[in-house]
Amino acid sequence: MTRTESQRARRRRTTIHTAPQQLAHSLTDAARSLNIGTTKLGELVASGEIPSFKIGRRRLVTPDALAEYVRKVSASQARRV
């Protein structure tokens, strides 16, 4: 190995690969992240409690929409206690 090849190999080994942040979740993945069923998530999306959008035939939910829903529900639950 030449010096340049050795430097490239060393650089490749030290590179840290991070997964890109997911910008939108399928309804299945969104339900899994909330630990609820897809039917319940579908009801929440249909009622407008969790905003969603479509690309082609796929309905997607953003992580921010899920986080906002959790904040809203947890705040309302905290008031009841």
Task: Walk me through the structure.
This protein is mainly α and 81 residues long. The chain has a single domain (21-80), classed as Multidrug-efflux Transporter Regulator, Chain: A, Domain 2, CATH 1.10.1660. It has four helices and three strands, in the order H-E-H-H-E-E-H. Strands 1-3-2 form a three-stranded antiparallel β-sheet. Strand 2 (53-55) and strand 3 form a beta hairpin. Helix 2 packs across helix 3 (38-47). The radius of gyration is 21 Å and the shape is elongated. The mean pLDDT is 87.
| Proportion in helices | 55-70%
Order of helices and strands: HEHHEEH
As a percent range, the share of strand residues is: 5-15%
Query: How is the main sheet built?
Result: 3 strands, antiparallel
Structural class: mainly alpha
Instruction: Tell me, rounded to a whole number, the average pLDDT.
Output: 87
Secondary structure topology:
Elements lengths: L2 H12 L10 E2 H8 L3 H10 L5 E3 L2 E4 L1 H18 L1
Antiparallel strand pairs: 1-3, 2-3
Helix pairs in contact: 2-3
Q: What characteristics describe this protein?
A:
single chain; 81 residues; mainly alpha; Multidrug-efflux Transporter Regulator, Chain: A, Domain 2; three-stranded antiparallel sheet
